[in-house]
Structure formats: C-alpha cells, structure tokens
Amino acid sequence: MAKPEKCITPQDAEKLFTHWSKTRGETLRESLGEHDTCEFKLDISELREYLDYVEEESKKQGITNPGLRLYFGAYDASKSNKTTFFLAPTKEKTLSRGGDDDDDNNYDIDAWNRHQGGWPPNIYNP
Questions:
Q1: Can you tell me the mean pLDDT for 103-122?
Q2: Which stretches of the chain are assigned E, i.e. beta strand?
Q3: pTM of the prediction?
Q4: Domain limits, the chain
C-alpha cells in the first residue's frame, strides 16, 4: 500500500503540536488553572467499526460520499472537566444552503465519542 498523500512527517507534526501548545495550550492552562488534555488514543478496530457504521447508514440514505467532521468538546466537572472530541458524520451539501464548500452534518447518524485523553498528556516529541 502506498503512503496516503496527506501524511506529514513526525517533524511537521511536532511543529503543529508545539505551535498549538504555545498559542492555545498555555491559554487553556491559565484559564483552567491546570493542564488540559491535548491528545487522545484511538483503537483502530473501534474507529474502523464506526467508519463502517457511518458508511452503511449513509448508503441507506442514498449518500455515496460520506465524511466526518471532528469537533472539540469538554466534559463537565462531574466527569473530568477535560477536553474531548467527537466525530460527526457529514453528507453532501444541499443546494439550498449555498455559501461555502463544506458538507452538511448528517444528524440522522449518531456522532462518536467516549475517548480517554492521556493523563498526564503525552507530549508529541519524536
């Protein structure tokens, strides 16, 4: 299998992480009074299971090119008060919406969450 076109080098990934840490991570730490989660481990089989679910449900709706949008979120204090993320399925943009090139969210398919961020956070440092 060929390497996907959108892969980046570990050095480029480190630059992205460092820039995020300096421009957003420190602001979050100062605002919250503590460090926040900044990375998440995903199980490939669980991710593949969700991708298969989105593809199957999209086909039932006549959607031939579904996608995913990643959103940041945060648990409330009763859980951890830490950052999380969820994946939301997308479908081709409807003509009535106009404006931008982004696909519409597909609210007829459940989003995906339940990720445990690393604690303490793992720093990306190749």
A1: 86
A2: 67-74, 83-91, 104-105
A3: 0.84
A4: 35-105
